[in-house]
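User: I'm preparing a small set of examples for a lab meeting where we compare how different chains pack in three dimensions. I only have the primary sequence for this one, and I'd like the structure in token form so I can line it up with the others. Please keep the answer compact; I'll paste it straight into my notes.
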Amino acid sequence: EVRVQESGGGAVQAGGSLRLSCVASRYTYNTYCMGWFRQAPGKSREGVAAIDGEEVHRTRYADSVKGRFTVSQDNAKNTVYLQMTTLNPEDTAMYYCAARSGTCYLASSWYNIWGQGTQVTVSL
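Assistant: Understood. Below is the structure token output for the 124-residue chain.
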């Protein structure tokens, strides 16, 4: 089974940028949907972005991040990225990478493979 591991989180000031990485234990391109989720303290897990394995380069974004976040993948490195720009304090959360074979959705219940998360903290 595929395993995933996130990295790249950290502390940044409002308006700044970060790039998160999610490395898969084996090749996932064209077979797995790779999603990014986040969870802030006291809130439910929220779908942020996803990239479709079955429809090449098809991406999905939450309305709250459209135009600011970009999801992409490097097949040679088995890695999916989440480029985050124009960050604001509302983006502060633990960010998780998730995977599942098949079509993509931004619902956390759809995914059956999860990483341990990487913390993103945005200050004013």
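A couple of notes for your slides: The two ends are 41 Å apart (CA to CA). The longest strand covers residues 93-101.

User: Perfect, thanks.
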